[in-house]
């Protein structure tokens, strides 16, 4: 079995792609000959793109152009085209076809760099080969003559691809073709070489591309469809097809993408030096030159043009901290290392004494707080092998994919991105150095069995000690790693208006300084995870929890007795006494306000059994996804606050659709029946000791319409009421927590809790 990271591949695979192209050539040539007759003068069938390169995967289209001399009559061209395409369509050949004359082709290539790149790989399948030779010669000459413009078009196209598809090495769902480091980057490199402006290590690139094409072949074969996206659910079948374990395949693909992306980045930097050579940066005051073109910026570190180098007197063996200084300089200046600098560090770097000296620790902190420049520098040093010298534990998370659908990066890239975000929050905390280290190490336990927060905490503390942090500081880093999920979990699954919630958090964090560090780490972690991890809703909940915990730590929080708890956010006006009186007489009051990217829907009704289930069903029928629910009862009136995901709701429209449901005119039992889903069964459990005023019930189940209504109806069926509910969705899984009380508004006793658990569990079967 091949190991992850190897580029060896079955020798028959590349041959299979050529065989497919040869088979396609015979089909196209036969159809062309039948269509043209004995005299093909002025007409030729041309293979372009991947077909032109003889790189046909099992489900690839055939990119074919019917090229003709402008002198050939239009009727003749039209007749040949119809006679050529129809037999191929009848044979169900996947065809991407066009008809062009030589002048049109050259003009198209002049206007569209992608078309020009396809023509650079043009190959005669059948017909007048002289037309193709002339066309390629003209297009290549145009490409080289307009090279400075064409490479900028190519650069802009690549930038758009990266924004759309991310990086193959780090994307949660990599695109083998379009992602940075994918097959398209390999084609771009071929086009750059054709400009004669820059060279690339051709043999290495072709070996990497061929290995990546092997994976795409297996993807097409195992899925039976044309796709370039390696989705998580397809990995096991693709891995079996190439003779790897699924995890090894994932690492293999990401390793290929990382190496291709690295070659591409180096090539673009070399090209930039050719296109726009710039003078060396102006020396800073007090700095001396160590050579004719090198500006020394730190001991052993200098600038050479727009690159960071080691100066002539640098000695990485005797001064291993020079690697940290060089990395910090490069990251803070946003400059790359000169060619060979990272490799020299990896080759010559001596061991740092442990614990690290204070100067080395300061350089590390400078690197981790450098902002976005950290990403490229860390990646370069990681590829070279320097990072392993500083942090051997990194090997377990390197290029490791995440099982969570909300993550957009691999674990290692996510950790570096968390440092980048944390650098923008350093003024919010007393110890930005500890925040930076915890940001890098917060997921370090994901490479080991067990809960990564629990596993990673002692690992992070040990690393911090090795890096020279005092024991007390190292302990803070370990605690930050241990509790980095605390605020997000509690804020979205507990009632932050319940004083007991803030009290529980305060007991864990201990003091305000640690709370500030944890809040900043939580934000950095979420923002670098993906857009759904730091929505305005989640941000509002977490910031609200942090504020209430600060109050508790300062001794200014309200009492934690159930009598003092009203269950209503202080910033929102409570319905008036008149509105409550109307509700007791049977009227329904409803108000809507925008809130954190969604809406808050306040419903005032008479308090009666099952009213929460009815409202939940009525909102679900309107397609409103509920984020949280809060309920307050005043005598015989019930005021419920529903946070929904859709903004800009009209209160009149919501009320009009809700009234028939509350009147019992809508058969919710039929409309809200849960759709069966395959996979893990729903899990229902009671969460003890988290509130003094309610019993907490957690439901984990497949998210679908009717889920909230089903749970609310089951709770009502055992004569219980919902005081609040907090609903979170992770991909296709719902994790909902309900604060349940009995008819007297008190927490449930043991027998009632058992009946509740059984009722909800049975409803979700």
From TrEMBL:
HD domain sequence ranges: 411-518
Chain spans, region Uridylyltransferase: 1-296
Residues passing through the membrane, by range: none
Domain ACT residue range list: 696-765
Region of interest (Disordered), residue spans: 1-22
GO-annotated molecular function: [protein-PII] uridylyltransferase activity; phosphoric diester hydrolase activity
Regulation: Uridylyltransferase (UTase) activity is inhibited by glutamine, while glutamine activates uridylyl-removing (UR) activity.
BP GO terms, sorted: regulation of nitrogen utilization
Signal peptide, first to last residue: none
Cofactor requirements of the protein: Mg(2+)
Keyword Nucleotidyltransferase recorded: yes
Entry EC number(s): 2.7.7.59, 3.1.4.-
Catalytic activity: [protein-PII]-uridylyl-L-tyrosine + H2O = [protein-PII]-L-tyrosine + UMP + H(+); [protein-PII]-L-tyrosine + UTP = [protein-PII]-uridylyl-L-tyrosine + diphosphate
Keywords from the UniProt entry: Hydrolase, Magnesium, Multifunctional enzyme, Nucleotidyltransferase, Repeat, Transferase
Xref: InterPro entries: ACT-like_dom_sf, ACT_dom, HD/PDEase_dom, HD_domain, NT_sf, PII_UdlTrfase/GS_AdlTrfase, UTase/UR
Coiled-coil region(s): none
Domain comment as written in the entry: Has four distinct domains: an N-terminal nucleotidyltransferase (NT) domain responsible for UTase activity, a central HD domain that encodes UR activity, and two C-terminal ACT domains that seem to have a role in glutamine sensing.
Free-text function comment from the UniProt entry: Modifies, by uridylylation and deuridylylation, the PII regulatory proteins (GlnB and homologs), in response to the nitrogen status of the cell that GlnD senses through the glutamine level. Under low glutamine levels, catalyzes the conversion of the PII proteins and UTP to PII-UMP and PPi, while under higher glutamine levels, GlnD hydrolyzes PII-UMP to PII and UMP (deuridylylation). Thus, controls uridylylation state and activity of the PII proteins, and plays an important role in the regulation of nitrogen metabolism.
Protein family per UniProt: Belongs to the GlnD family.
Protein name according to UniProt: Bifunctional uridylyltransferase/uridylyl-removing enzyme
